[in-house]
Amino acid sequence: MSARSIAADVASGARSAASVLDEHLARVREREEEIHAFNLVTEEKARSQADAVDAAVAAGDPVGPLAGVPLALKDNMCTRGIPTTCSSKILEGWRPPYDATVVSRLADAGAVFVGKTNLDEFAMGSSTENSAFGPTRNPLDTGRVPGGSSGGSAAAVAANFAPLAIGSDTGGSIRQPAAFCGIVGMKPTYGAVSRYGLIAFGSSLDQFGPFATDVADAAALYDVIAGHDPLDSTSITDFTPNAVDHLSRGVQGLRVGVVRELSGGAGSVEGLSADVLARTNEAVEALAAAGAIVEEVSVPSATLGLSAYYIVAPAEASSNLARYDGVRYGLRVDAPTTGEMNTATRTAGFGAEVKRRIMLGTYALSAGYYDAFYGKALKVRTMMLRDFASVYENFDVLITPTAPTTAFPFGERSSDPMTMYVNDVCTIPSNLTGHPGISVPFGVGDDGLPVGVQVLAPALADGLTFQVAAVLEAAANAGGAT
C-alpha cells in the first residue's frame, strides 16, 4: 500500500496510525534478523507518534501529509535523545541533543519513525558491508548486497518495513541502493534540502533525499523535506518544492540527452554490463515513444568524476572526522597522554574503510601535495560544472544507468577498493556539480535482479526529475521494460 494511501486512510479515520504501525512492525519482527536493515528499531517512539496522530484525527485537528506513515531514518541524521551512530563504534550510544531539520519536518508532517537504519560507516561505502554493526542484506536476494551507503534505508523500503525512508547521498548513496533494491531513490539539488543535523562526510557533497516504492510517494516525501532552512548556511533561499505538481506533465517535446560516456558509447567508462545498458536503452526508447526528443550527447569530463571525487570526498572527510578525538563526545580510549589517547580512540573507533579515506584525504591536503591532488581535483570539478551547464543549454534532462551492474554478491568487491568505488561512476558527477538525480527501476538484469535508470537535471530542476521518472515508471509497469 502506498504512503499516500496510508496517509489518506489515517486522515479520514478509515484506519488508525497505530494499526498501520503494528502491521509494519510485524514485518520487521519477521525478517529483520535476516536482513539487518536497522541499527535500532524505535518502537516506543513510533507508538507515541502514532497515538498522537490518532488523537489529532479523533479531535478533528489537522494532520500532516504523511499522517501515520511509517518511515525509516538513516543512522547519520541526528534524532534528539535517540542513539545516532553512523554505524561506527566511535559514536556507539551517542544521543544527539537536537533533531535534524529533516527529522523535525517529517514529525510535523505526521510521519511515524520506525527506526534508525544501517549504513556503511560514516556513509563511506557502496555495499553496506562496512558497518561496525554488521552488513545489511538485500531483501530481494539475501546473498547480495543492498548497495550503499544507505543500504539499510533502501532495504527497509524494499522489505516493506516502511513505505518511506530517508537516506543521504554523497556520491550515489541513495540512487545506487535504490537501483539494487528495485525502488525509487532521489538526490536533490545541493541546498534544496537542509543538511542541518546530517553528520558530515563530505560537506560540499552530502544531501538528504527520499526512498519510496514508487515515484509519487518519493515526490510527496521530497516536498515535505525540501525548502529553505535558516539553520543551514548552504540552504537555498526562495525555493519552493513542487515535485508532486510535475508528476502528470509527461515528456512531450522534452529534450532528453543520453550521456555517451556513461551509457556505453564511444569513450565510455568501463565496467557497464550489457544487461544494464539494454534496460537503459529500453528506457530511452520509452521516453521517445512518449513524445520526448532523444539524442546522444557527450560530456567528456564525466569520465573524470570518479578520480576527482576520490580526492575531494576523502579530503573533506579527513577534515570532518578530525572532531572525533575522544575529548568532546563519542568513544574515548584512555592513554597516558592526549596524543596517545587520540590515536587509541581513533584506532579502536574507526573501521578500515574510514581509516583508508582519512589517510587519502590527509595526504591530498598535505603540504607539497595539495596543488598536485586536491587543487587539481577542484579544477576538474569546475570543468564538469561548465560541461554540464553547456549540455543543459540544449537538453532538459540527461539519462544514464544508475549503477554499472545489478546487486553483486557479498564479499565479491570488498577486498578491492577500486572495484567497489567504480559502483558510483554514474552517480558521482551530479554530486560534484550539485545537480539533482533520481533512480527509477526499469526491468531486470540477466540475473533477475532490478536495474535502475538515472534521470539527471540542472540545479533546482528537481521536479523535472520526478516528471521524467513518472513516465519511465509507467512504461516499466506497462511492460516496456524487459
**Termini gap:** 24 Å
How many strand segments?
11
Query: What would you say the CATH architecture of the largest domain is?
Result: Alpha-Beta Complex
By CATH reckoning, the class of the largest domain would read Alpha Beta
Indicate the structural class. Answer: alpha/beta
Largest sheet, in brief, is: 11 strands, mixed
List low-confidence stretches. none
Query: What percentage of the residues does DSSP assign to strands (E)?
Result: 5-15%
- According to CATH, what is the topology of the largest domain? Amidase signature (AS) enzymes
Mean of all residue-level pLDDT scores: 97
Question: Count of DSSP helices?
Answer: 16
Percent of residues in helices comes to 40-55%
- How are the strands of the biggest sheet laid out side by side? 1-3-2-4-6-5-10-11-9-7-8
Which radius of gyration do the C-alpha atoms yield?
21 Å
Shape: globular
| Tally of distinct domains | 2
Can you describe this structure in just a few lines?
With 482 residues, the chain is α/β, with parallel strands linked by helices.
Can you describe this structure?
40% of the residues lie in helices and 12% in strands. By secondary structure, the protein is an alpha/beta fold. It has an eleven-stranded mixed sheet with strand order 1-3-2-4-6-5-10-11-9-7-8, sandwiched between helices. α7 (215-225) runs antiparallel to α16 (462-480), α9 packs across α16 and α10 packs across α13 (371-391). The radius of gyration is 21 Å and the shape is globular.
Topology, element by element:
Elements: H1 3-12, H2 17-35, E1 38-41, H3 43-59, E2 70-74, H4 101-108, E3 112-117, H5 151-158, E4 164-168, H6 175-181, E5 184-187, E6 208-212, H7 215-225, H8 243-246, E7 255-259, H9 274-289, E8 293-297, H10 305-320, H11 338-349, H12 352-365, H13 371-391, E9 397-401, H14 417-421, H15 428-433, E10 437-444, E11 450-456, H16 462-480
Parallel strand pairs: 2-3, 2-4, 7-8, 7-9
Antiparallel strand pairs: 1-3, 4-6, 5-6, 5-10, 9-11, 10-11
